[in-house]
Amino acid sequence: KLNLKLSTSGTNLGVDAITAQYFADAVKEASGGKIKIRVYPNCQLAGGSMPKSIELLIVGGNYELAVFSGSVLGNIDARFLTHSVPFIFSSYAEAIAKMDSTGGEYYTNLMKEKGLVYLAGIHNGLRQLTNNKKEIRTPEDLKGLKIRVPSGEVYMKTLREFGADPIAMNWSEVFTALQQGTIDGHENGYQTIDSAKIYEVQKFITEWNWSYDGYWLMANSKDWSKFSEKTQKLLLEKAKEAEVYGRQYLENAEKEIKKDFIENRGVTITELTPDELAAFKKAVKPVQEYFIEKFGEDAASAWGLK
Ligand code: MLT
């Protein structure tokens, strides 16, 4: 009999918590109720802190499992944000192709070094820009806007290069900061935006797919090694099922969410023309080169950075 805890950083409506719950239910059923996993959203076991959440998973003794994004993992090693370098992926199929081959292998090894076991990878999403001031179509439009980002150099450096004033903040604090106007905007995938009801406090979204973010289902290595072979096999098998479910869930949800934002939530969604997008890509070319150099050849080739 096992009672396990699983931490997630998004809200209870985020694809991370939804996939984690699917995993927990599948494990419970397959083990005849012997393995129970309880899901804790909002980094609540770490007081809402994203950096603390990943530290606690690694230290052990707090929770055995987690589903965390690159924006959380990036706090322990910047290379966990290789997949988020601007404009590497423009579709989920492209991201999956790397995640399920060289990119996934690279992160599996990096996680092993940190005391983590890679179980599955799903989408957090292609990240879009929200703000409450105006429609953003050019890097100039972003000048001076205070945009919340998760911590991590990929986020800070890129948004600065785009002309914005980036501010690092835990996800759990973002809604209130937007509501109170401490920040003007933020960036995230459609499903994550929806799961925290960000549309209540932001009227503009620019669809620019500037960065891809994933969520990784992981276990603490020490805890993992204590599980029997049979338990490990069952957990891995259900993690892979949850992976298929979570990816599909997000891809389907995005279409519905976009429609809902426009038709029911009064959100203006600006889709950039190829020329407008090219201006953002040009602005961050030096940033891409910087990260290829910084993360090294192994990381760059594993995730297809050019
Ligand atoms: C963020 O913006 O902090 C992330 O996309 C949210 C998350 O990690 O769940």
Task: Provide a descriptive summary of the structure in words.
The protein is an alpha/beta fold and 306 residues long. The protein is 47% helix and 22% strand. Strands 1, 2, 3, 4, 5, 6, 7, 8 and 9 form a nine-stranded mixed beta sheet that branches. Helix 6 links the parallel strand 5 (146-149) and strand 6 (165-168). Helix 1 runs antiparallel to helix 10 and helix 5 crosses helix 12. It is globular and about 55 Å long. The termini are far apart. 48% of the residues are buried. The mean pLDDT is 97. D-malate (MLT) binds next to helix 3.
Task: Tell me the layout of helices and strands.
Blueprint: E1 2-8, H1 15-30, E2 35-40, H2 50-59, E3 65-69, H3 70-73, H4 92-99, H5 102-114, E4 116-131, E5 146-149, H6 153-161, E6 165-168, H7 174-180, E7 185-188, H8 190-195, E8 204-220, H9 221-226, H10 229-264, E9 268-271, H11 274-283, H12 285-303
Parallel strand pairs: 1-2, 1-3, 5-6, 5-7, 8-9
Antiparallel strand pairs: 3-8, 4-7, 4-8
Helix pairs in contact: 1-10, 5-12
Bound molecules: D-malate.
